[in-house]
Amino acid sequence: MKGWHGRLLWVDLTRGEARSVEYPKEWALNFMGGRGLAARILWEHMPAGADPLGPDNLLIFAVGPLTGLPLPSSGKLVVAAKSPLTGGYGDGNIGSMAAVHLRRAGFDAIVVRGRAEKPSMLVVRDQKADILPAEHLWGLDTWAAERRLREDYGRNAGVLLIGPAGERLVRFATVISQEGRSGGRPGMGAVMGSKRLKAVVIVGTGDFNLHDQREVAKLGSAAYRDVKRSKGYSFWMRQGTMMTVDWAQENSVLPAYNFREGVFEGFKGIDGYRMEELKVTQRGCPNCNMTCGNVVRDAEGELSELDYENVAMLGSNIGLDDLAKVAVLNRLADMYGLDTISLGGTLAFAAEASEEGLIDERIEWGDFDRFRDLIREVALRETELGNLLAEGTRRAAEKLGGDSIRYAMQVKGLEVSAYDCHAAPGMALAYATSPIGAHHKDAWVISWEVATDRFSYGPEKARRVIELQRVRGGLFESFVTCRFPWVELGLDLDYYIKLLRAATGVEYTWDDLYALADRVYALVRALWIRELGGWDRSLDMPPARWFREPISKGPLAGSRLDIEKFRGLLDAYYELRGWDERGVPRRSTLEKLGLGFTVETLDRLVGLTP
Known about the structure:
With 610 residues, the protein is α+β, with helices and mostly antiparallel strands. The chain folds into 3 domains: 7-203, Aldehyde Ferredoxin Oxidoreductase,  A, domain 1 (4-Layer Sandwich); 233-416, Orthogonal Bundle (Aldehyde Ferredoxin Oxidoreductase Protein, subunit A, domain 2); 427-490 and 509-606, Aldehyde Ferredoxin Oxidoreductase Protein, subunit A, domain 3 (Orthogonal Bundle). It is 43% helix and 13% strand. Helix 2 (34-45) crosses helix 19, helix 7 (213-229) packs antiparallel against helix 21 (494-504) and helix 19 crosses helix 24.
């Protein structure tokens, strides 16, 4: 089998064992890699109903057949597990040299189960894997720990690790690499911490096992040239995703004050032009020639790597209009190992709960010093409030009771990322149906939506969300490569099918790949149903605030979502996917997609429709 290695590194921390195992060839052909492979492994090997923070949960680091190849932005891997934040399937991708080294080490994924007796780390050198003590790293922030590891294993080694937040099982702790790369929003860092696994270090020196290495190099070289020739390349290299701040303000989708508004009066203090004034360098993932990590000097004189999501969530959404101070909060999140999006949503929840008298602590909008302290309290669970917020907004609201769930801006337990949807039903649908909870990466439909008929609820919006989910969440998350060359600079999608054929020798068509993407989404939905023990379509609804409380500022003041029209939009989405009115894949859909192995379980739990 070319293009894949066909092997997993299976690690049992309880037993202190690591071994290479083969997996079925059809898993590679039908699920590709990354998200698809991770979902298939979880279904097959994780006991149903496993405690997300228990030894039976599986922590998976998965690459795909395009990962690490000499083509634009290919240095990505997926980290997946059952989520301690949502209770369902969770994953995220992260750009790291670890992705390249994992391919070169000869594995398509690392699967970690069990729990080490003491803090440990996994060191992979090609086909050799060792579980080593890591007490000397436990308690260190991600920057300090990674620097120590690089002293021991080399500057170019692949390193994935957690900070104090992951060690303390903060439910939105992430996996960190390279002092600013972060992945696994739904608590993948907490899963890693629950296993007492501080770090994974990978050094690989082998080849990629390609079908036609010369053709891959030729296609990759041409794609690199096309990226640099894009008319948007120059401005992208100046601002990257930070250009979105001005765009979001102009189109009333910039989250402000816990998504109460879509515009922010202080947006100029946090936009891309302000970032350019503070910028000292930029960073990117391996094999990238359109680096998106803009590194600024923050208000405390340290370096912080910024992009739109963390700036909007730790800026306008908490009422902070000073980018140098936003950068401090972002840096602390990376050092502690916290997801910046969920952190911004959680801090905003706390500010609104304070404003409404639901908590005793005084937290003012835009209070940098209080937010800075609160980040430490959350990451270390060192105060009653910090411990509460470390559970995420949904659990915090459930514990506070009363009306507090109104202020928890989340879907399925995952905090909404940085686009207000009072006047964007298509993007609200994308959040509602994201396979990990409210995240934008699977279907960033909002730019298309505001450029067309943003206020419509027609089936074309459901169709467009599915089209984007297929490519962004189904294919790029399974290839595994970054979607930015295509999304931001218009790299022709045909490059990817040609590269896939050259890498694997498999003659996939676009119909084959779209079916593969649909298969992955249906399997992920099946995992949710199995792990929750049932399903209710209310789990696919966006936050109530967007229906009940219209925005009051900006050109779209008075706008809000229409709940009955949105329900019709969700119906259209389900019908197009071949799912029933509950959001459960039909028996015929599962069988058509080759997911017959899920039918007995789902039928027992929810009763499948034909």
